[in-house]
Structures are given as structure tokens and as C-alpha cells.
Amino acid sequence: MVTKEEIFKAVSTVIDPEVGFNLVEMGLIYDATCDENYNAKVIMTLSTKACPMHQLIVKWVEEAVMREIETVELVEVEVVWEPEWNISMATDEVKAKLSGAM
Questions:
Q1: What does DSSP assign to residue 28?
Q2: Burial 68-89 (b: 16+ CB within 10 A, else e)
Q3: Are the C-beta atoms of 58 and 20 separated by less than 8 Å?
Q4: Do the beta carbons of residue 90 and residue 26 sit within 8 Å?
């Protein structure tokens, strides 16, 4: 069975091109599951609803899970807007670097 941690690890290979951190560090990945048929689901958000790379980032997440976890047959990415993302959801390292850049 594929674990949430394995899926998060796979998604951590996806870097947000605007800030240079991976999506997991940014706190953009809310949950991940995989059923007995090896269909994975990733629930995530984006830093803003107006993100110009919305579709591309979703595609990157799908591709990362398929590439990194050979047993996964299908990946569904659900983008949600609640809870709304904010900087407090990021890791301490990301918060420190982004706060210094602001």
C-alpha cells in the first residue's frame, strides 16, 4: 500500500518556480491518499487563486507521483481554496527566507 508520506515525498520534487521551494515545504499540499487499486489522490491549494501556473503545477504533481511511485496507476489532484493558504503553513525555513525577501 502506498502511504501518505510516500506521496508527499514524491510531490516534494515539484518546485514552485516563483519562489524556488517545493510544494510540500510551502504547505500547499494538504492531504494525500492511495486506495487498494493504486489510485492516488492529492489535495492541495495554490498560494493565490490567480496563479498563472495553476494547470501546469497540477500536471507536475500528477507526473511526480507517477514517476516517483511505480505502483501508482492513476493520480487525481484536487485543488481546494479552503483553508486559504498563508505563509504560516510553510516550513520554518521557507517562512524565514520569504519573510527576509519581503
A1: -
A2: ebeebeebebebeeeeebeeeb
A3: no
A4: yes
According to DSSP, the residues that pair with 79 across neighbouring strands are: 44
Give the residue from 78, 82, 13, 85 showing the smallest Cα distance to 40. Answer: 78
Domain ranges of the chain: 4-101
Report the distance separating Cα 19 and Cα 94, nearest Å.
9
Note the pLDDT of residue 101: 59
Q: Which CATH class is domain 4-101?
A: alpha beta
Q: Taking a C-beta distance cutoff of 8 angstroms, is the pair 94, 59 a contact? A: no
pLDDT digits (tens, 9 = 90+) for 69-98: 999 999 999 999 999 999 999 999 999 988
The per-residue pLDDT for range 22-69, each reduced to its tens digit, is: 999 999 999 999 999 999 999 999 988 998 899 999 999 999 999 999
Question: With a threshold of 0.85, does the pTM exceed it?
Answer: yes
68 close to 13: Cβ distance less than 8 angstroms? yes
